[in-house]
Queue: 3 jobs
Job 1
Amino acid sequence: MPVTLEQANDFVRRYHRHSRPVVGQKFSVGVAYDATFICGVAIVGRPISRLLDDGLTVEITRVCTYGTKNASSMLYGACRRAAKAMGYVRVLTYTLPQEGGASLRAAGFQLEKENAGGTSKDWRRRHGTAPPVGDDLVGGKWRWVG
């Protein structure tokens, strides 16, 4: 189901274990039991890395669920299909290594690069960027492509 950025960010603010809400988006989707109970959201935007922002690539910047079975796979798959239908060629997202990636593989994503996030020191030097939530969230991320 479609959700607004405000709805998606509110869900992320309340339930995501380590990431903050996002500033912008291309689109957001949700998964729900019915029209009144959203059990997960995903937010898709421009790639965070300027080097990857070629106009034909989007990045899934947040996926957040209550832990409902298969909700993450449904969200990743819906984002991938919607982006491709809109004409985007690549869909990227990042995970922490301990997150495994089963939902991504089920949605048709492949691991493209390990250790794709850069170092904590690099992030703290960038002008205009919010500081990371913790050192463990910068560097060592896995990049997936779908």
Note: DSSP finds four helices and six strands in the chain.
Job 2
Amino acid sequence: MNAASVASLFLVGVSLFGVAADASAQSPWRLGVALGHGVRTNPLIQSDDIPIALDLDIAWFGERFYFDNFDAGFTVIDNDAMTVNAVGRINSDRVFFGKTDTRLVTIGAAIGQATNFAVGAPLAQPTELTVPDRDYAVELGIEMLADGRWGQLQLAAHQDASGTHDGYEVFLDYGYGWRRQRWSVEPSLGFAYKSDELNDYYWGVRPDEASAALPEYQAGSGVNPHLKLAASYQLTRHWAVAVSAEYERLSTEAAASPIVADRDVVGYFAGAHYRF
């Protein structure tokens, strides 16, 4: 069973295509490149959406150990019923914070509409509004993968091992795929539960970061539901065309943060994929 996860569909470096080439079963390496057009919206205030034009797919699968783009793991159980892996990964929430800007704003109706917080008295001089910076977190966890005629199920739990946020996440995704000759279509749905510590680190505003333009905020735990759809058509042994789309809704706790402008995160990608 393939240990690759589609949980972070638009994270840079994650393969967006589930197409299979016969040659991939004969080698421990899976190498591919995708060219096309894609975008993932950014929920943060004064931020830019994340474009995707090139996607590299690099993976190696040994008898037990494997590397799959930004995930590395060890297969503990692998049988007809399920695969269980111990996994190390990099948390993907940080990706939004690399596309933000610092701006001068005047406290008043306009900034209140843009940043979702209660405004105070207008200030004589513009105030600098900066989205707080956040770090990537290295997380360790366990995942269970199972499939059958009923579909595919992924259940995973990850805990921060780098001391970045000290929180954890529980992820569940169920998909059902259809394959007919060269066509492949797979919708899926699920959710991610994020703990108090994880949510507050990425979406909270600490006292030393707060200002007249950015009030202090502490985020609690919450659930982010998601929907995904991936479709591909195999042109040749190596070439395929594919489209994928994803919708994620931030939890109430994350969406209430003054650094969040939109709780709905939408992504899509369409292009051609070459597998070596």
Note: The domain at 22-275 is CATH 2.40.160.40 (Porin).
Job 3
Amino acid sequence: MKKKFRSFEDARKFVRDLGLVSQIEWVKWCKTHKRPDDIPHSPEQVYRNKGWTTFGDWFGTGYRRGGWLSFEEARKYARKLGLDGHKEWVEYAKKNKKLLEKLKMSISPQPVYKRKGTWISWGDFLGSGTIAASKREFWSFEKARSFARELGLKSFADWKEYRQSGKLPQKIPTNPNRTYKKEWKGMRDWLGNESPSLFDKSANFLPWPQAKQKIRELGKKYGLKNRKDWTKFAQTHKNLLEKSYLPANPWRIYTKERVWSKTKK
């Protein structure tokens, strides 16, 4: 007996509500056994000549009646989010799918704007600075630092707020410590701020008092009891540690402190 599936329109509506953004995610989802029997795992075959166009249309990422937001406006919005890469965008898009739809923004902007010839890279779209040198050139370290110092900012928090404002020139990276690794001396040097800073001058890690408090908070939240637990945690939460300005191996950075013995008291 031939299997009966939902109509193309009903099946597509069901799938779009899942928040999937790629064929890879679709295949993984189908393997979880959450797929109803009347939703085909190969929709491109079942709905051929019955409404099927592309997976972008199937997921609701590559087509929108009335069109998508212009690339310039979409990029301007994305850069204000302060995201560092594609993975963070996917997480944000899944949690804010309805908001993005309201703004006429695709949860999968790359294929949308690639077809229009405006897409460059995720680094360009998010303003994270991770763009190939062949496609984007930055000012020299001295010139970029001179510009940053003229802003009168006092801390990394100020810098982060400024870079998310959309005012940062394209010739200056949002994460200068990554772009200017050889010249980088810390956020105080970058901003020309000689007052005490929350960040270590050479590595931009929190100084020990603040780091100890943050480590304790993470230990309590994630149930970390010893150095072995922390090591495993650090391997799977690199982005979180980077955002918190904590090293993966605090006992190597804070060499004058007995790190773990003090943090677990």
Note: Residues 8-59 form one domain.
